[in-house]
């Protein structure tokens, strides 16, 4: 690969931005395409599919063959609240290939015994997220039921464009949450992105079932997300 393209690729990956290294197998020319770069026609459609799926591979477009080497930032889940749902979600997330972090300032809940081997931070979200900011490849899951803990990361998730934003609670609870987020300056369209009640509607009852519903919702949002610079 051309050294300039390699530097560009590494810069984008270090910044947790999605890129594709495209090689024309006919003439050997290659280029780095960042998510959101305009590419028209059938090739653009193939590139969009690759960004969503994360799969590298050969594509044939109008009698020309291209190899798309896809580099997506590792999708991660940040769960606010070291509760029973998060315990189940953490185990499932690892199996599904997600990095996961649990944040909760309540040290009675955020213990190594309850989250062995999991990235656990017993501190306030507003402090943690300064050093570990959210981004477009992060799913934010707020499950404490405590506005003092949940509201800040929810607001940050909307501002930074997390691909999934979910919050536990009834419709009545969410209506109050909407009022608070509106007061923080978020518009109706932004707030409507929140999955609340959280997760897919599968009739989940137990913490483990709710975790299944959340993880399935996260996967659906990741694979069907609008690409940067594009419509839904």
Automatic annotation (TrEMBL):
Protein's name in the database: XdhC Rossmann domain-containing protein
Start and end residues of each XdhC Rossmann domain: 78-218
Highest taxon, organism lineage: Bacteria
InterPro entries (alphabetical): MoCofactor_Util/Proc, XdhC_Rossmann_dom
Source species of the chain: Shinella yambaruensis
């Amino acid at each position: 690969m051309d050294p300039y393209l390699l530097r560009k690729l590494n810069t984008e990956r270090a910044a947790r931005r999605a890129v594709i290294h495209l090689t024309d197998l006919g003439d050997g020319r290659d280029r780095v395409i960042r998510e959101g770069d305009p590419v028209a026609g059938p090739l653009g459609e193939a590139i969009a599919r690759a960004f969503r799926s994360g799969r590298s591979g050969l594509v044939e477009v109008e009698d020309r063959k291209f190899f798309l080497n896809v580099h997506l930032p590792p999708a991660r889940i940040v769960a606010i609240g070291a509760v029973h749902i998060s315990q189940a979600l953490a185990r499932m997330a690892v199996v599904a290939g997600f990095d996961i972090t649990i944040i909760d300032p309540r040290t009675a809940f955020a213990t190594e015994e309850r989250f062995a081997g999991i990235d656990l931070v017993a501190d306030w979200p507003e402090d943690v997220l300064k050093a570990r900011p959210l981004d477009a490849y992060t799913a934010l899951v707020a499950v404490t039921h405590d506005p003092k803990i949940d509201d800040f990361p929810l607001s940050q998730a909307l501002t930074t464009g997390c691909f999934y934003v979910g919050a536990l609670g009834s419709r009545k609870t969410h209506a109050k949450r909407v009022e608070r987020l509106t007061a923080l300056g978020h518009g109706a369209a932004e707030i409507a992105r929140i999955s609340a009640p959280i997760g897919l509607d599968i009739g989940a009852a137990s913490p483990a079932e709710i975790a299944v519903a959340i993880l399935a919702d996260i996967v659906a949002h990741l694979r069907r997300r609008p690409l940067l610079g594009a419509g839904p």
